[in-house]
Amino acid sequence: MSKIYNNKMMFLVAIFILASVVNVMTEEQKDTIKARNIPGINVPDPYSKGCVSCHKNNPEMRFDGRLSAILHSWNDAVDAKVLAKAQTMVPEGVILQGKHAFRVTPETSIPEACNKCHGKIKSAPRLFQLLHKIHLTGNQDNLFMTKFQGECTYCHKFDTRKGIWSIVSAKEGE
Fold it and tell me: Are 79 and 87 in contact (CB under 8 A)?
């Protein structure tokens, strides 16, 4: 009983100390604290169409990042690094075939169409796991982390009026 009492007392003392430190900030110090810019929430969203806003043809980088182009090449064989990551996200005993079965065109609504296979089917990695593992792992070799700083709101859109999150689907040609 006294151990629980001591833990509660230590917690209350810690809260009191923390509150005291926060209250000694001057008004000038408080004015220097600024909220970070969050696209689509407190600054404009330059990638309002989700996936297809970023996944574009970039000739200056010598890289066609359109999902229709990337996934078209995977109809024959999925990139080995991506396949290795994807294999870690399927149930034990499932061996991925190393090919992307669905034909993606510029008229495919991304990521809405992706969920048909990557939503509940047990033989394909779940889309949310696959995208988070591809986009949010790695450092210097991951463009989403280096160029876009892993910003969640480039994919996850927040409706400030309704207070709800969503994922935008769009076609490459829109």
Answer: no
pLDDT for 134-165, tens place per residue? 898 877 888 888 888 889 999 999 988 899 99
| Mean pLDDT value across the chain | 85
Question: What Rg, from alpha-carbon coordinates, does the chain have?
Answer: 23
Angle 146-108-103 from CA coordinates, rounded to 5°: 95
Q: Is residue 57 part of a domain?
A: yes
- 170: closest CA among 73, 61, 29, 55? 55
Residue 74's domain comprises: 45-167
Characterize the bridge pairing of strands 156-159 and 164-167.
antiparallel
| 142 touches 131 (CB < 8 A) | no
Each residue of 95-141: pLDDT tens digit?
Answer: 988 898 889 999 999 999 998 888 877 778 889 988 998 898 877 88
Would you say residue 36 lies in a domain?
Answer: no
Residue from 98, 132, 102, 96 nearest 114 by CA: 102
What average pLDDT does the segment 44-51 reach? 92
Cβ count within 10 A of residue 125? 22
Domain count, the chain: 1
